[in-house]
Design brief:
Layout (H helix, E strand, L loop, with lengths): L3 H6 L2 H23 L2 H9 L6 H9 L4 H14 L5 H9 L4 H13 L6 H11 L2 H9 L2 E11 L4 E13 L1 H4 L5 H15 L5 H6 L10 H4 L5 E16 H63 L4 H40 L1
Antiparallel strand pairs: 1-2, 2-3
């Protein structure tokens, strides 16, 4: 066997150190590849220590370890009490940790309860936690337009209402939207308007919202009703006048129907009289048409002579002449009376 001096003679020591150095270099390279050293030292320098194992596991989950470090540093600066594991859970779920932390800090400054459970739920569900918290701090304005109702003196009013709302963070995820509050306020206004006259409401429109329970209006809603006021009020239809016009129109139509009925009745009477007259004329013509036949038959049978027939014809002619003379005299008398009248005028 060869001793150490013999191995040294062949350069074994150099080979050994070379192998050890190569293995150490490879190990260092692998360490730098696997372990996020930059993120670790960044957190260490910023006094927001995160274990190297945590950063390595996060990197293995294909999440940038620097995002955890930056979020942890931001939490320390904002004074938000949050754990590393909580930040990691939001990152792994795909949420924006920076927005969530800023939202928690804003809520804290505004004295609005917003723990990590609520903030993370808002962020993961809406992806807009920061804007939601801002809306909870600042007021939101909503309008209700064209609320129509009839006053007690039968005048239609058209009302617009302005609502000042704030988001209720604890109820935002499961509460109802603004439609619930709008429906409640609209119903209240429709019930109130008929209790007053037009003059009362035009002089004091806020009577429409008098007695409105803000808490009840916001019950079950994601919003809190802060204030409500009538922004506009105008006069719609005059129901009383419309009713009078409709009543007058109805009476007119009824009277027209009655007049048409009487007119039709008179026309029917006139038509019946005409028909009866025509029937009488027809009967008379039929009777007259029988006279020559009767005379002819009587002459044939010897009951009536030709001389009797001529006497009858002369009698008819004499009668017609006398009638014409009498008619002429009556016309002359009328003409004379007209002349006398004109003469008197002269």
């Amino acid at each position: 066997m060869m001793n150490f001096s013999q191995l040294a003679a062949f350069g074994a020591v150099e080979i050994t150190f070379t192998v050890i150095g190569g293995v150490a270099l490879i190990a260092l390279i692998l360490f730098l590849i696997v372990v996020p050293v930059k993120a670790y030292f960044t957190a260490l320098i910023a006094k927001a220590h995160i274990s190297m194992a945590k950063l390595t596991s996060l990197k293995n989950c294909k999440v940038d370890p620097m995002s955890l470090v930056e979020a942890n540093i931001l939490a320390k600066r904002l004074g938000v009490n949050i754990k590393i594991n909580e930040i990691e859970s939001v990152l792994l779920a795909g949420g924006n940790v920076k927005d969530m932390l800023q939202a928690m800090a804003l809520a804290k400054d505004a004295s609005i309860p917003c723990p990590f459970s609520l903030a993370s739920a808002l962020e993961l569900k809406t992806k807009n936690s920061l804007e939601i918290v801002k809306s909870a701090i600042e007021s939101v304005s909503e309008n209700i337009s064209q609320i129509k109702a009839i006053t007690k003196d039968n005048i239609e009013l058209v009302v617009d209402v302005n609502l000042i709302l704030k988001i209720q963070l604890p109820k935002y995820l499961y509460g109802l939207a603004t439609d619930k509050i709008k429906a409640f306020v609209t119903e209240h206004a429709i019930k109130k308007i008929p209790l007053y006259s037009k003059e009362q409401l035009m002089s004091n429109p806020q009577l429409i919202l008098e007695g409105l329970d803000n808490a009840q209006a916001a019950a079950g809603s994601a919003y809190l009703l802060v204030e409500s006021r009538v922004s506009n009020i105008s006069i719609g239809r005059n129901i009383a006048m419309e009713m009078e016009v409709k009543r007058a129109e109805k009476e007119r139509v009824f009277a027209q129907m009655q007049a048409d009925r009487v007119k039709n009745s008179e026309e029917m009477k006139e038509i019946r009289a005409r028909v009866k007259t025509e029937e009488t004329k027809t009967s008379l013509l039929e009777a007259e048409s029988q006279v020559p036949l009767a005379i002819s038959q009587a002459i044939k049978e010897g009951r009536f002579s030709v001389m009797d027939y001529y006497k009858l014809m002369n009698l008819q002619a004499d009668t017609a002449l006398r009638r014409s003379i009498v008619s002429g005299k009556e016309e002359d008398v009328d003409d004379d009376s007209d002349d006398d009248i004109f003469g008197d005028d002269e």
